[in-house]
Amino acid sequence: MKRLKLAIKIFLSLALLWLVLRQIDTHRLFTLLQTSNPLWLGIAFILYNLSKIVASFRLNYYFKDLGLKLLERQALRLYYVGMFYNLFLPGGVGGDGYKIYLLQKYHNPGYKPLLAATLLDRLSGLVALLFLAGILFLFSSYAKLSPWLVWCDLFCLILLYPIFLFLHKKLFGNFTTYLWQTTLLGLGVQILQLLCAYALILALPAPVPVIDFLTLFLISSVVAVLPLTIGGVGAREFTFVYGLKLLRVDPSIGVAFSFLFFLISALSSALGIFFIHNPYKRSPSEI
Predict the structure, then answer these.
(1) What is the pLDDT of residue 109?
(2) H helix and E strand count, the chain
(3) Rounded to an integer, what distance in angstroms lies between the CA atom of residue 217 and that of residue 200?
(4) Hey, is 95 helix, strand or coil?
(5) Can you tell me the distance from the alpha carbon of 208 to that of 34, in angstroms, rounded to the nearest whole number?
(6) Highest mean pLDDT among 5-9, 93-97, 177-181, 276-280
(7) DSSP state letter for 141
(8) What's this model's pTM, rounded to 2 decimal places?
(9) Helix (H) or strand (E) holding 10
(10) 21 burial class (0-12, 13-18, 19+ CB within 10 angstroms)?
């Protein structure tokens, strides 16, 4: 069953990439990639990893609610190992499953509470993504396409966090001690990702509509979260192609941006290989 799921994900990724490459000027795509500014690419890489460091702090707060006393460096090591497994071994147990296995092995809080903490961590990030995407949408060219979309967006923005906080307390009552910290850190993670995306825009040797690009980036990030492709490959590019076509903007720029973002995320995830043989290095007090 796992092999079948992996095969489907690979097929969907390749199929979407094939559709994307058929819609763009591939020569212009490679030119954009080759002439990208390395300084801004480096800044984007740093900002992306800062977002992951903040994300590891957020997840550690959820673990604290379970009585787990992980040092921040331990949580960070686990987080990067999880990133490595999620991207490079998507057909196996996955990064989240591996973290749950290790924490259960050393602390024994129970698989269900650990699964709940991991799920809540993902939901917190998704809500922040939707919130920021909704704000940027109001100032983007997409808001001019249909007035009813603006009203729908405003309605969702007003209700999004109240509904999330209500459901958080109702369904995840054991994780309310650090509710505001995790909520604010969730926003912080996505703001750093937005800054990373802005650095990538500056790295591209072509003028782009910044707000529209950042709006599409957040929407594509929501699409990439869906477990349909390998690491969001294909899904993000597909979103950019058709999103930019609505505005009559060259989609090659969006695909170049998407490829660069994936490269940065892949290089960052690859850092987890340095901790793969000792992902849970305990402090002397735990031995």
Answers:
(1) 85
(2) 11, 0
(3) 11
(4) helix
(5) 17
(6) 177-181
(7) G
(8) 0.88
(9) helix 2-23
(10) middle
